[in-house]
Amino acid sequence: MTKPERAPASFRVEVDEQPIKRRAVFSSDVQNLGSWHAVSVDAATALSSRRRRKVDDDSLRLIDDLTNRPLDPLFSDARLTQQKQRSKFSVWSTRIIVFIICIAVGFLGIVFVRQLNTDPRKQVRASLISELEAQNASLDKATTEVTDLHTKVARLSDSMPNAGPDSTLTQDEMANGALAVKGPGIVVTLADPVASRTANGNGPRENSTNHIRVVTDSDLQNIVNLLWRAGAEAISINGYRLGVSTSVRTAGQTILIGVNQVASPYKIEAIGNHKNLSQAMNNESQPDLYRALNAAGINPQVSRSYSLRLAAAQTANVVHAKRSK
User: Fold this and answer.
1) What is the 3-class SS of 185-227, one letter each residue?
2) Cα(100)–Cα(240) distance, rounded to whole angstroms?
3) 61 with 104, same domain?
4) What is the reported pTM?
């Protein structure tokens, strides 16, 4: 019998070339690994003679590793995790799910960015403005109803039998503004100058340092006082009659006639002798007033009218006041 052929020696790994981690072959995908075969004795001897150059420099050691050993010993281990080919249904379902998730994330991101760029004060101001408008509308409706009721009461009082008209009561009610009146008079118109409008939409009032300003409540009060002194019998501003309990004041940047807001242009209607009223309100009679208004960019306009109609003023209920004997 012949002597059995000697098996070739396997490649001996040097101590400094041993891998840090060992490969685990207890996997169903071990067949994906490459084939490794033993070499002959002569080849093993030749290979074992190749020893790693001993260098102390780390950079030279790295260059030597990249040149002589470019393949990472653990590279083949990654082949153990390779999966089988996926079906088209699985691939497309995954893509669709990822696409939907991306759309949802993008939409939420847009909403979040818009929330960050939104000023919450605008919503608060809009809510307050809507509430104020609703309150003003309710107040105007209630005022109209009160005026209509006063008119009905006066009409019913006049229609009562055996009751003649009381001229004294009628005169008192007209003087107090409780009844609507008509007659000749003048119309004084004031308007804010265009140059007085600021960037935020609010015009400078009398406390502003700007030379150009808008019409103030003081301007309206001065003109109303001049008209009363000149003999005006009834006055209204922008359709709101001035009565015994009506005030002209400023709330913030808004002028109020009683509780009603008015805005430029301001139309002051006064019933009386239109000749005396127009003469008392012209430039020659009030030079200081016209000089101050013209310096602020405000130009009053006075016109005569032979027929003015003024509605009744808002009246307050008398509770504490008693007639004095």
Assistant:
1) EEEEEECCCHHHCCCCCCCCCCCCCCCCCCCCHHHHHHHHHHH
2) 62
3) no
4) 0.50
